[in-house]
Amino acid sequence: MDENDRVFRISGIPAELPQAALGSVLDAVFAAESGSGIKTTVRSLGPHPQRGTHMVATVTFSSVPQKLSKGASWQLSETVEHNNQSIRLDLEIDVGFLGFTPTNTPIGDESDRIDCIAVSGLSSHPFGSWKKRGGRFMWLVDDDAAVPSNVRMLLYGYDTSLVASQSFQNVTDIGKSLAAAVQGIRPSAEGAFEPRPIVFIAHSLGGLVVKEAICHMVKTDPRVARCVYGLIFFGVPHNGLLVDPWLRIVENRPNEQLITALKPHSQYLQRLAQEFGQAFALGKSRVISIYETMTNLPKFNGKFDPDYLVLRPYLQKIWANAVADIQLRFETAPSQAEAETAEAFRGLVQLWPAEEAGRSSGELRTEFE
Q1: Which keywords does this chain's UniProt record carry (predicted)?
Q2: What's the rounded mean pLDDT across residues 293-299?
């Protein structure tokens, strides 16, 4: 990857700072070391999910500032001049993107909001996982039509490193952390619960993390669990994967147990499948499962990528129906018929990439309808 394509996350931006001015203000922050040479490109901007008085941006630089060239996180306190005003900035900058990274500012009535959470996979990056390989297009950020204005888009990052990792976390631990994070950002009013649809987009191991999170929320906060409406899975190893290459990387390290649990039809995966089938017994849910028979998924080359054009109509159906379906779900008690329907995964759509042998763009197979 070109060092100048490296994406940085900047937290602590005052909410009153106009988005149009953010790039030039950040240019001024780094001007002292480079004159006027560094230009900042703001890739995304959104309110912090827990500290709404501050914004979070993802940015790239025309040339990586010297003070950001070493390490993985930094704290900067600067006073810059903008429009004849002094602006005090206390910024936290990182490249790991752990936790939530908002990528937009939703607009419209709160009652029409949808939370969409993208969870990346094993040994991946929360932003880079969804970005064109060797390019700039990141479909969750760069295609306005992909995410309606009433959707709050959040990237979720967790420690997925394998090389030299000292983490003892397993998939269950990571799923519980995701569940706690989701519960911590959900809207609530005094004495009342506000149902807002949740849609998860997950790649590879991220799909198992999402399933664990849902299982945990059913036990700890069933109202939030009932808000889960859509699941979009990219190449999720529900039945396991070939782990030998990964085991050679993590041999005798604390995270070896995480990889071992992913062996095909392991006891862990069988347990998760059973628990998830019971936990996600919710009517009118939408599940899209995309087989990863191409090396690029879940990356797309651009807005007119044939595989992307196959996926988009299904996303649009989720956005169009989520609010009404979740409101109906909370107005009526779950019926046995709904539970049986959900356990059979009615509405599960399995999409194949457009270039798979023998299939043309737009062709798909639907099961359990």
Answers
A1: Endoplasmic reticulum, Membrane, Mitochondrion
A2: 74
Torsion of Cα atoms, 17 then 19 then 23 then 28, to 10°: -10
Q: Which residues contact 260 (CB under 8 A, 6 or more apart)?
A: 243, 247, 266
pLDDT tens per residue, range 250-281: 666 666 777 888 888 899 999 999 999 988 87
- The full 3-state SS of 221-240, as one line of letters, equals CHHHHHCEEEEEEECCCCCC
Q: What is the rounded CA–CA span in Å between residue 176 and residue 157?
A: 14
Count other C-beta atoms under 10 Å from residue 209's C-beta.
29
Please state the φ and ψ torsions of residue 299, each to the nearest 5 degrees. -95, 145
* Overall average pLDDT of the 323-339 stretch: 75
Domain-wise residue ranges, the chain: 3-73+85-94, 99-366
Distance CA(320)–CA(322), nearest Å, equals: 6
Q: Which of 223, 226, 232 is nearest to 201 (CA)?
A: 232
What letter does residue 334 receive in the DSSP assignment? P
| Spatial CB neighbours of 255, under 8 Å, sequence gap ≥ 6 | 162, 165, 167, 168, 169
Q: Which CATH class is domain 3-73+85-94?
A: alpha beta
Q: Which residue has the higher pLDDT, 209 or 351?
A: 209
Q: DSSP readout, 67-101? A: GGSSSSEEEEEEEEEETTEEEEEEEEEESS--EEE
The CATH class, in words, for 99-366 is alpha beta
- Residue 283 neighbours by CB distance under 10 Å: 18
CA–CA dist 103, 274 (Å, integer): 34
DSSP per position, 118-180: EE--TT--TTGGGBPTTS--BHHHH-GGGS-TTEEEEEEE-----TT------HHHHHHHHHH
Please state, in angstroms and rounded to a whole number, the distance separating the CA atoms of residues 330 and 148.
Answer: 23
Among left, alpha and beta (phi > 0; psi -120 to 50; other), residue 66 is alpha
Paired sense of beta strands 228-234 and 286-290, if any: parallel
pLDDT per residue over 76-123, tens digit each? 998 887 778 888 899 999 999 999 999 999 998 888 999 999 999 887
Distance of CA 139 to the CA centre of its chain: 12
Task: Report the distance separating Cα 80 and Cα 82, nearest Å.
Answer: 7
Q: Is 148 exposed, middle or buried (0-12, 13-18, 19+ CB in 10 A)?
A: middle
